[in-house]
Amino acid sequence: MQQTDLLLTRIEIEEAIVGIRKDGIIHVYYKSDITINLHLQNRLKKIFSELTYNQPHLYIFEGGFNVRVTREARLNALTLNKQVLSIANVVVVNSWYQRVLAEFYNILVARGQLYKVTTDFEKGINWLNKLVEEEAA
User: Fold this and answer.
1) 120: phi then psi, degrees, rounded to nearest 5
2) Which of 56, 128, 57 is nearest to 92 (CA)?
3) How far apart are the C-alpha atoms of 33 and 111, rounded to whole Å?
4) What is the rounded distance in angstroms from the CA atom of residue 2 to the CA atom of residue 112?
5) Which of 14, 23, 49, 108 has CA atoms 20 to 30 A from the CA of 88?
6) For residue 117, how many other CB atoms are within 10 A of its CB?
7) Spatial separation of the C-alpha atoms in residues 2 and 54, rounded to whole Å
8) Is residue 50 within 8 Å of residue 34, measured between CB atoms?
9) Quick one: pLDDT at residue 137?
10) What is the mean pLDDT of the chain?
11) Is the whole-model pTM more than 0.70?
């Protein structure tokens, strides 16, 4: 069973699956062999807004193999980051290329935000849930 099978609410487009998990975390799965570009970023921004009713949420992002990001999308990430309301983000990586992109994003865009890069999906979920528990305490 894939993690995306556990979503309570699920929106699937050609490039990605986005949904809300039982614990309220927004799970974004980029399908294999896709390119993240400005058009896809804007489509996902609308989906995030629809799912969250423009309220801040926790996000976990993961990608299949061979997910690429255009230069324009990397540059647009700073603007997009200000528009999507997030409490904290986890990026699950499965290759050195994805790790480099995730760390680049962290340095240039997510600075000052709660952000974690991991190779283990469950560790990422646990980290997000721990933040919720600490906030509640």
Assistant:
1) -120, 115
2) 128
3) 28
4) 32
5) 14
6) 19
7) 27
8) no
9) 65
10) 88
11) yes
Q: What backbone torsions phi and psi does residue 50 show, to the nearest 5 degrees?
A: -65, -45
pLDDT at 95: 84
What is the 3-state secondary structure of the chain? CCHHHHCCEEEECCCEEEEECCCCCEEEEECCCCEECHHHHHHHHHHHHHHHCCCCEEEEEEECCCCEECHHHHHHHHHHHHHCCEEEEEEECCCHHHHHHHHHHHHHCCCCCEEEEECCHHHHHHHHHHHHHHHHC
Nearest to 33 by CA among 66, 63, 69, 62: 66
Tokens standing for residue 18: 């986005």
Token representation of residue 65: 């193999």
User: Which string of b and e fits 8-23 if b means at least 16 CB within 10 Å?
Assistant: eeebeeebbbbbbbee
What distance separates the 2 farthest-apart alpha carbons in the chain? 42
Both structure tokens of 91: 């990026």
- Contact call for residues 45 and 13 (beta carbons, < 8 A): no
Cα distance between residue 82 and residue 127, in whole Å: 22
